[in-house]
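Render this sequence as a predicted structure.
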Amino acid sequence: MFRLARPAASGKSVPGRPGCAWKTNAIPQHDWETERDMGILVPIGTALTVTGLIGLIACILMVMRARKKEPDEEALKARLQKVVAVNLGALALSGIGLMLVITGIFLT
């Protein structure tokens, strides 16, 4: 915002306040370094989200293959328990990526 300072020799006085003048460097400074640093969160978050989505698609394909190959219900259940861990990891990775994207958008 504008700051009031002592009257300068060439400064205009503020209307209604005869002892004050507008400061010449009244334009607020912007911190471009912080914006550039926070802007990197969006591509990183996008990469994590895409990686998580690829993991979720891989889980779907693993379950489809397991249902075709495993005739025994116990063997199918054991195989699907392994897929659940991968599924949860991929879902968490995708969620963290989306949080980074949203954080990067808000802070930029």
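Summary. The beta strands are 4-5, 13-14, 17-22. The mean pLDDT is 80.
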